[in-house]
Amino acid sequence: NAGVTQTPKFQVLKTGQSMTLQCAQDMNHEYMSWYRQDPGMGLRLIHYSVGAGITDQGEVPNGYNVSRSTTEDFPLRLLSAAPSQTSVYFCASRRRGEKLFFGSGTQLSVL
Amino acid sequence: LAKTTQPISMDSYEGQEVNITCSHNNIATNDYITWYQQFPSQGPRFIIQGYKTKVTNEVASLFIPADRKSSTLSLPRVSLSDTAVYYCLVGDRGNYGQNFVFGPGTRLSVLP
């Protein structure tokens, strides 16, 4: 099992550009989620999904879109990047009642 | 949502036992206590989970008093590689985890 795979590991964007952060898991987990982590802070939940076709907003959803067309994939889209979205992004998944598995993160800089 | 409070940072020396206490005064009946560890440039990793009394695994112990309003993560004989941020989370294990809140955690520095 590869676990939770995130791509890319690093990305630099200009203000206003769009991009998609990819997240895939091979553990057949129902739940997938995206977090952002700013320097010296904990993780804040952006969006989550409890199954294919089901998504919902977390604590800080503005500026981000998600979709869940398959159990394995949960991409995060930035429609118009802003400097305030400079952060490290983590994808996580779990089976209900079990521990969260995290990806290795994507470091995003918006200039 | 049960809010947790932990020390922002702690220092220790190699070989010592480290105890990190987390306060969760409004923990609910169905809530479990879970600890995660995060190394720099990595995602958090599960350490241990418990509901009451004591839980022990190969890396840590978790002590939970009868009133469950706090918990203590114990790391025996720490090494330099235990330098990390430790997060205490409280939530209903029966849900998916969307209500788990990662606060700033406790930054543990292990010195030689």
List descriptors.
heterodimer; A: 111 residues; mainly beta; seven-stranded mixed beta sheet; 11 strands; 0% helix; B: 112 residues; five-stranded mixed beta sheet; four-stranded antiparallel beta sheet
Largest interface: A-B, 27 and 22 residues
| Main sheet summary of chain B | 5 strands, mixed
Q: Which residue ranges of chain A are poorly predicted, with pLDDT under 50 across at least 5 consecutive positions? A: none
Which assembly state applies to the chains in this document? heterodimer
Largest sheet of chain A: 7 strands, mixed
Number of strand segments of chain A: 11
The value of Rg of chain A in angstroms is 13 Å
Q: Quickly give the structural class of chain B.
A: mainly beta
Which shape of chain B, going by the Cα principal axes? globular
Please state the average pLDDT score of chain A.
Answer: 95
**Which structural class matches the secondary elements of chain A?**
mainly beta
Please estimate the helix content of chain B: under 10%
Strand content of chain A: over 45%
Radius of gyration of chain B: 13 Å
Number of strands of chain B: 9
Shape of chain A: globular
Widest β-sheet, arrangement of strands of chain B? 1-9-8-3-4
What separation lies between the terminal Cα atoms of chain B?
39 Å
Elements of chain B, N to C (H/E): EEEEEEEEE
